[in-house]
Amino acid sequence: MPQQSNLNAIYTYDICAVIIVGLILFSLYFKKLHHGAINKSFIVLCFVVLLTTLADLLGLYYSKPETIQTITPFWFYAFQSSYFILRCLNIPVYAVYIIICAEGWESLKKKSFLSKILFLLPSMLIISCLLINPAKPFMFEHDPVIGYHRLPGMLLMYVHAVIYMVFCLIIIMKYRHLFSRVVRISLISMFPLQIAAILIQIYNSNLVIEMFATSCAILMFTVTIQRPELLINWELGTNTKHMYFSDLKRLTSLKTPATILFINIKNYKDIKNYLPREKLIIVLKNIYAETLEHAPHDFRNAEGYYLDNGLFAILNAQVSKQSAKKYADILYVLYSQPAVLDKLEIHLVPQIGYYDYPDDIGEYHELISFIQSFSSLMPPNAKTPVDIARLTSTKNFRLRNEIDSIVADAIVKEKFQMYYQPIWSVTKKKFISAEALIRLPDEKYGFVSPEIFIPAAERSGAIYQIGDFIIDDVCRFIAREAFRKSGLEYIEINLAVAQCLQPDLPEKIRTCVEKYRIRFSQLNLEITERETIADQALFDRNIQKLADMGMMLSLDDYGTGYSNIQRITAMPLDIVKIDKSFVDKKDEQSMQTIIKKTITMMKDLNKEIVIEGIEDESSVDFFTNLDCDFIQGFYFSKPLPEDAFIEFCLSRNVQ
Q1: Lowest mean pLDDT among 12-21, 207-216, 551-560
Q2: How many angstroms from the chain centroid is the CA of residue 402?
Q3: pLDDT bucket at 489, cuts 50 / 70 / 90
Q4: CATH number (domain holding residue 325)
Q5: In 3D, which of 228, 213, 224 has the Cα closest to residue 185?
Q6: Nearest CA-CA partner of 553 in 472, 492, 486, 512
Q7: Residue 599 resides in a domain
Q8: In what side-by-side order are the strands of the sheet with 238-239?
Q9: Which residue range(s) make up the domain with 647?
Q10: Rounded alpha-carbon distances, angstroms, from residue 201 to 129, 211, 388, 551
Q11: CA 626 – CA 599 distance, rounded (Å)
């Protein structure tokens, strides 16, 4: 018995689906989310869904008893067949979207012709059946009396849907490690929504909600996968750092060969300091626009990313390194010329490098680490683009790429060691304090410089565990009887800004002091403000609590960081440490004037002064005559291990 369908269909849900998908397409166009294979495949999916819904509305209108008599059977079959053909295409287009999300466009292009035919075969068979149907109806039929009704052959549509559903689920599960849990759920949501819609329509054939269910799935993709704030930098028109990490993860998972080119503006911070933000954005936007404009033919489909702080990346699969070198040479010449903005000449200092994946750098963590250390790894005076393959074999490169695992291993195995550099008291004529300096010995690389492992620890969050170790070990050292006999009064501990922003920092230190039964005054906490402070109120609150507990506070490296006179007067500081850069230029007349005025000013503010980086006797005499309080440097001693340091103090200090 033929199944009569939708004689009094309620197509309000189709209208809602048109509105939802139409608004999504409008937002994609308005926000310029049309670059990249994932975005393009999503737009195609939205268009197919929109056309299918419009075809459904048209077919429903001409299926009504009062309108079916107004058209010939040819047009009836044309309208209905168009809807079902488009409906048939929905799922393979959706499957292509999933494949591109998982494997990327290049991987899809590399599929064999046979694989592509097998993929499209179910849809091709259904479309063939729909084209034959008007001549010999077995899927749906036009009846002048009862109107439009479906025939048993329509079950083929559902078999077709199940085939692609299984295929999509296999792809999602195969590459589940590339997707977050939310994204996996979102991708799978299409199927339960469609099944629910079909069951509802079986129960009430007048409710036409299949396309509404599809539009709901599209809306979910928009919210969870096509998130514009994560994908696109609106101001520059580039992909974001988040998108770069996602694409690298896909690249390394699939082992897809690719060439990656970096463009770094080495003097970005200087430009940022003197240009208003809106003009800085224009400069960066122009850099990216010119990068695309001068791209050779085989880089036209490359993906561009802004990785923050003046660093851009261009990623292109299946391109030769020779082509990347030519592109890099063009860009280097381009950016070596002054940029003109509102009659202002802006001189860029470009650093450009390129490498092949996986030949030059083969692991995901190495690729990520390379971004963080790109500028420091590049030759400082390079006048041409650099083939990164020349750098990857160096010890410094390997160390920086492995530093996170080295730090993590050192924490677990307690490898860190504390060294102490003695500080000479000018007035007491002996060593009464020392600066605690952490050292990291490694079996493979020897002693790793703090200039490498401290920034890495700050990025990874390991700095908190390292900071806790330093505080505990220094307190333990102060509690030793040997410390009391050495004539030392206190030890200086460096605090990173990140540590100062821990709400429980004062209590941590209090617990440690009480544990070893030492005095708060035996600790001098050094603060170095080399960076802006995210939460100034919390920072100031912690510093004041530490001062109220009786600990001394020092400002380290005065003259190099963000600190100014207002900050010095606002903080409860006891000591200001003058940076070595002042010492290095002490013979210059202008610097001597600055040094003398600085020391006089600090004395007037009741601050004691430590001069760092003293390496010869003439410097000792110079700063002693300027009435400085303390002197520190290699002239007296390099940093020493704990026992050697105690021996040094016992032999030098007058008891």
Answers
A1: 551-560
A2: 19
A3: very high
A4: 3.30.70.270
A5: 224
A6: 492
A7: no
A8: 232-233, 238-239, 303-306, 311-317, 258-265, 350-357, 386-387
A9: 402-577+637-652
A10: 23, 12, 60, 75
A11: 8
- Check: CB of residue 403 under 8 Å from CB of residue 442: no
The Cα–Cα gap between 374 and 407 comes to: 20
CATH of the domain at 445: 3.20.20.450
DSSP character string of 151-178: -GGGHHHHHHHHHHHHHHHHHHHHTGGG
* 537 in a structural domain: yes
CA nearest neighbour of 262 among 300, 299, 303, 315: 315
**Backbone φ, ψ for residue 148 (5° rounding):** -75, 135
Could you tell me which residues are beta bridge partners of residue 3? 150
Q: For residues 385 and 610, is the Cβ–Cβ distance under 8 A?
A: no
Torsion 510-512-517-518 (CA) sign: negative
71 and 135: one domain? yes
HEC string for 341-372: ECCEEECCCEEEEEEEECCCCCCHHHHHHHHH
The pLDDT tens digits of the residues spanning 266-280 come to 888 888 888 888 888
Using CA atoms, how far residue 92 sits from 89, 103, 149, 164, 423, in Å, is 6, 16, 26, 7, 73
State whether 489 and 424 are in the same domain.
yes
Do residues 155 and 298 both lie within one domain? no
SS (H, E, C) 460-473: HCCHHHHHHHHHHH
Rounded to the nearest angstrom, the gap between the alpha carbon of residue 566 and the centroid of all alpha carbons in its chain is 34
Cα Rg for the chain, rounded, in angstroms?
A: 35
Q: List, in sequence order, every beta strand (DSSP E) within 484-580.
A: 490-495, 523-527, 552-558, 575-578
- Residue 511 pairs in a beta bridge with none
Phi, psi for residue 399 in degrees, rounded to 5: -60, -45
pLDDT in tens, 388-436: 887 776 777 778 778 888 999 999 999 999 999 999 999 999 999 999 9
Residue 102's pLDDT band (cuts 50, 70, 90): confident
Tokens of 196: 């629910």
| CA–CA gap between residue 241 and residue 577 (Å, rounded) | 38
Could you tell me if 61 and 151 lie in one domain? yes
Backbone angles phi, psi at 15, to 5 degrees: -65, -40
Residues 130 and 272 in one domain: no
Q: pLDDT, tens digit, for every residue of 1-57?
A: 334 444 445 678 888 999 999 998 888 877 766 666 778 888 999 999 999 999 888
Q: Do 44 and 89 share a domain, yes or no?
A: yes
Q: Name the token pair of 525.
A: 């906490």
- pLDDT higher than 60, residue 215: yes
Do 18 and 109 lie in a common domain? yes
Domain boundary among 347, 369, 393: 393
Tokens 């559902």 appear where? 158
Query: Is residue 86 within 8 Å of residue 126, measured between CB atoms?
Result: no
pLDDT tens column, 59-72: 777 666 666 566 67
Closest-CA residue to 126 (of 98, 164, 72, 96): 164
Q: Among 204, 226, 248, identify where a domain stops.
A: 226
Q: How many domains does the chain have?
A: 3
What would the two tokens of residue 630 be? Answer: 């303390």
- DSSP assignment of 299-339 equals GTT-EEEE-STTEEEEEEES--HHHHHHHHHHHHHHHTSPE
352-371 pLDDT, tens digit each:
988 888 888 877 777 877 77
**β pairing state of 344-346 and 575-578:** unpaired
